[in-house]
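Hi R.,

Here's the input for the 4'-deoxy-4'-aminopyridoxal-5'-phosphate complex you asked about:
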Amino acid sequence: MFMKKGIFITATDTEAGKTVVSLLLAKALREKAIDVGYMKPIQCAGFDASFVREGLGLDDALSLINPYYSKIAAAPIIAFKNIDLDKIFNAFRELSKKHEFIIVEAAGGLLTPIKKNYSMLNLIMDLDLDCLVVSPLKLGTINHTLLTIEQLKNSGVNICGVVINQITPKVNTRLGNERIIKEFSNLPIVGKVGYLQKKVFFDTSRILKAKAQNDKLPFLDKKYVWHPFTQMQDWLKQDNLIIDEAKGNYLKDIKGNWYLDGVSSLWINVHGHRHREINRAIVEQLNKLEHSTLLGLSNTPSIGLAKMLIEIAPSSLKKVFYSDSGSTAVEIALKIAYQYWQNRGLKNKQKIIHFSNSYHGDTLGAVSVGGMDLFHKIYRPLLFSSLEVSAPIHITDLAKLKKIIEREHNSVAALITESGIEAAAGMIVWEKGILKEIENLCKKYKITFIIDEVATGFGRTGKMFACEHESVKPDIMCVAKGLTAGYLPLAATLTTDDIYNAFLADYKDQKTFFHGHTYTGNPLACAAAIASLKIFKKENTLLKLQPKTALLKKRLEEFYKLEHVKDVRQFGFMVGIELAPYKWQDKIGVKVCEKIKEKNIILRPLGNVIVLMPPLSITKQELNYLLDSTYWAIETITEK
Ligand code: PMP
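And here is the predicted structure with 4'-deoxy-4'-aminopyridoxal-5'-phosphate in place:
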């Protein structure tokens, strides 16, 4: 990961004048008192690197400025036997330490091959710099410039603008080119270089603008944004991280600091940020159909995804109803379960059973079946009444539930539960077997069994869905969060055929499920979800998770050495470390998570419980770092 402290100069092709533009831009930035360094990582023939080095009077070693030089005028993949990328990255790091701003010049065009499966574009992406596109004035460059820009945009590279470079004495296309490139690419012209560098103009403030804009963001955030689950009075007083970019298992703030994403951006990221294949799938879908409704129409990705979901879901589930968040998936589950019994003529079956400490979302229906007083108490007058049963932790705790079901089953429509772990309550893990017992009770007493896999779904517990650990087959299952691997808001409520069939009737019978959100089945989100499910297969995500889960389990035992750790709970890749004795007002969890930022890690606690829930793609090395740092942060806050 690199700090963004420079710009990558690319062009339509070789011979576009990148070197001259690099030199002139460096000089223009120097006039603004910026200490500029220069780098040409790879050079095949010519003397660009030494030309700029001398032109700027730089004293950096030529081996840093130009780690790879060959006399052969050919593509790097041909001119060099092997290019070690680390050599380039290390040189870049060295120069970044020395200079305020680095201009990195490409060799050739974007898709110039550097090594197997690695082009200049990959280098731009890995160095993580914004790009400037040099467009030489000649016939055909509009096309080449726009192609270059299109490719950069599709790869998620930020382009700060185009530099028009007049490379021949006479041109009659100058103004035309400028106007059309601007219009078609929607990018500014940030520089112009006349023939023989006679007239030179650079909009340096625009080139540096991204940075300047960022400086205002903390102020604007506090002025305009109301954050969820946040006491804004505290927020307004403190310095807050503003995330601007992400890659793999890391997030980057506007100051250029990278942080390990220790809670998967609130329990959703699966394969890492900006995964190449998910990015590509979304872009391809974007170029085809961004959205079309499922009300009265269908769309291609939503059909493909529904089929894939049914193929991986417990075998009881046969139909998919889309929505856009965990809460809406739960609302839909509750309404379907209720209406199912109404449609079947069992009008008395109206009540819902839920567990204490349960959390199913923040919309009013979901809150009605939520058991967390801290979040929900104030809304009680607005809620429908639901039967709350104290949550079991051991199988023997189920006696109460049995009693209530025996007494009330004729008036109960459904039971809703999280899947073996009450996540938001602080990662409270249930004894294995409880879920199966609940399923048996629901079957026996004809109660629709709803499992909320919003937090647990998509590999988080080691299986695709947590209920698979007990071979449980619910009547309804809610999924969201990891469904799109953390890319886009999408949720689904899966049901059995039996439930679905109870809604089939003449229109006049009013058995239709009258429910639907505007963005239901959004094609971009469905495309992301399809790509994610393919990655599960291709990358063997669940298999690869096993040694990491074992490592996590082993290393979590160490935490009991800490005086204030009361309990450590784990279900696959979901971890809660409970600290005691503290009141929620002590905000001990918040303090630990503040501390761990010093180690460049982002966590978010649940009261006194420190949550670890990294992306499934985290490496063992990163996991060890996460655990070491968590240990350190808890120890520092609670013992020192
Ligand atoms: N159900 C469970 C089990 C959850 O953990 C959550 C969110 N943490 C939700 C539902 C609600 O999901 P959303 O925030 O997407 O509405």
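One thing worth noting: The mean pLDDT is 94.

Cheers,
M.
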